[in-house]
Amino acid sequence: MEVKVALVSLGCDKNLVDSEYMLGSLLEKGYSITSEVGSADIIIINTCGFINSAKEESINTILEMAEYKKKGKCKLLIATGCLSQRYGDQLLKEIPELDAVIGTGDFLKLPDLIEQVKVSRLNITRNKTVIDYDIKKRVNTLKYVSYVKIAEGCNNRCSYCAIPLIKGPYKSRPMESIKEEVEFLVSRGIKEINIVAQDTTSYGIDMYGKPSLPELLKKLTDVKGEFWIRVLYAYPTHINDELLEIISCNPKITKYLDIPLQHISDRILRLMNRPTNSEQIKKLIEKVRNVVPDIALRTTFIVGFPTETESDFRELINFIKTYQFDRVGAFKYSREEGTYAATLRPQVPEKIKQKRFDTLMRVQQDISKNKNEKLVGSILTVLTENYDSKRKLFIGRSQKDAPEVDGTVIFTADKCEPGQFCKVKVTKAFEYDLYGEAVQIL
């Protein structure tokens, strides 16, 4: 008898990787995958527990899916992921519809655990991380883009972050395993590989005794095929000359670097337990742009960190205006139990956090619009991802845009297919997106 499983994946791209491996392990055991939760016999929610809004989304989704035990076919409701790892006992106690919680280090055992769940409720959160994957079991949920985790856990101990409590210490994957995964994904038609971890630039320190991301990238660029490699979550401490050189010189690596900076005030950086100060950050940005002049820089900032004053915030805004990042994301500080930052006083009121968040994003919106306007008339290489048949327009991204978090390039073309690279001449610019016309199919 066919047993249908629906999986709802929440949170970050690293969570999505875990979800894709879960799907593969279920398919191997004969389960049928469906996107229709109403017709599923088993519903799995891969939760996020990073910040309060993510926790709320995860809990609300669990409660929403629990309704299908009443009005749908659902017989088993299972929560996996970060929220399960951290709050497994509470979830089982407070949500009786849940049949099991499975943590971040046990999700690959899902098919066997389902058999146990049929007998009794389970809380499986013994292990914090898993870094060994059966690569060929992975199911791609995105057509032309994929994320590859090169490590799990984190050693940085930023004062606001609960990830080390959830995932444990940093653990790198072997280069050979990562290269094999990239080869497998490219053979399946993936055109963009996004390298992810909590801290990608610390890759290899635990396994090879030194930061080894540059060496890994060199190996990955040897993989045959036409595809991009993009580096995300590059912790500033280990961005060195070798890494910048390979980004600059290798055409397979996008001229794009995501460097989470979090703040620029030295006082706030110290309270955050960040290992860099404002002077080091500014010198790093100048160095990156000097070595890779055409690079697109993305960063993220936290507003409303405990004790953040108006002066601290104004320093951050002036920094953003001066250094003109191509892409900026922002978070309102989230008070996480078990972290040092949660003990700091005073905590910034929610109303002020929201005001600062809105101000920062308005400033960046103007910067983004100005930068995009400078691209009008230029020709960009674009990875085509979708076609809007109503408007007869193609939608893709240039090297300057990471999937899901950055802008898009919308363009016309006589002959083009999703999955192809195109040369697109930019004719219009908006705050985050570009509009143009294809001039060459690659």
UniProtKB/TrEMBL annotation:
Keywords: 4Fe-4S, Cytoplasm, Iron, Iron-sulfur, Metal-binding, Ribonucleoprotein, Ribosomal protein, S-adenosyl-L-methionine, Transferase. Residues 373-440 form the TRAM domain. Its EC number is 2.8.4.4. It is found in: Cytoplasm. The keyword Iron applies. One of its GO terms (biological process) is tRNA methylthiolation. Residues 140-370 form the Radical SAM core domain. SMART domains: Elp3. Residues 3-119 form the MTTase N-terminal domain. It holds the Pfam family Radical_SAM. GO terms for molecular function: 4 iron, 4 sulfur cluster binding; aspartic acid methylthiotransferase activity; catalytic activity, acting on a tRNA; metal ion binding; protein methylthiotransferase activity. It is an enzyme of class 2 (transferase). It catalyses: L-aspartate(89)-[ribosomal protein uS12]-hydrogen + (sulfur carrier)-SH + AH2 + 2 S-adenosyl-L-methionine = 3-methylsulfanyl-L-aspartate(89)-[ribosomal protein uS12]-hydrogen + (sulfur carrier)-H + 5'-deoxyadenosine + L-methionine + A + S-adenosyl-L-homocysteine + 2 H(+). Binds 2 [4Fe-4S] clusters. One cluster is coordinated with 3 cysteines and an exchangeable S-adenosyl-L-methionine. HAMAP family: MTTase_RimO. Catalyzes the methylthiolation of an aspartic acid residue of ribosomal protein uS12. NCBIfam families: 30S ribosomal protein S12 methylthiotransferase RimO (TIGR01125), MiaB/RimO family radical SAM methylthiotransferase (TIGR00089). Belongs to the methylthiotransferase family. RimO subfamily. This is Ribosomal protein uS12 methylthiotransferase RimO. It comes from Fervidicola ferrireducens. The lineage of its organism: Bacteria, Bacillati, Bacillota, Clostridia, Thermosediminibacterales.
